[in-house]
Amino acid sequence: MVGNGSARRSEKAPGHLDERSFAFDDGLRAALASSDAGWSDFALGDDLLASLDGIRELLGLLPAGTPAQVDYDDDPFGVRYWVMRWEWS
Fold it and tell me: pTM, whole model, 2 decimals?
């Protein structure tokens, strides 16, 4: 699945700076890291130019509580990106 967090994390970001992006991305990262299908802040994500279709689908597919291995977590160009892996049997 492909998606990204907020695209409004700096003045040079595609959507310019929106202070709400930091708390939003922290919440989204926590939901992804713990496979929290109950996370529901998708409307705010639309305001913050997050790409959430793949993330929404992924959270629906992962067994609840499946931990993620976070391989990358940064916001180059003002857009929050993660690379994560989940393993379950």
Answer: 0.93
Q: Predicted confidence band at 38 (pLDDT cuts at 50, 70, 90)?
A: very high
What CA–CA distance (Å, rounded) separates 58 from 68? 12
Nearest C-alpha neighbor of 39 from the set 27, 48, 53, 49: 27
pLDDT in tens, 41-82: 999 999 999 999 999 999 999 999 999 999 999 999 999 999
For the chain, how far is it from start to end, CA to CA, in angstroms? 19
Query: Are residues 74 and 8 in contact, defined by beta-carbon separation less than 8 angstroms?
Result: no
Contact 10/79 with Cβ under 8 angstroms? no
Q: What is the rounded (10 degree) CA torsion for 26, 29, 30, 35?
A: 160
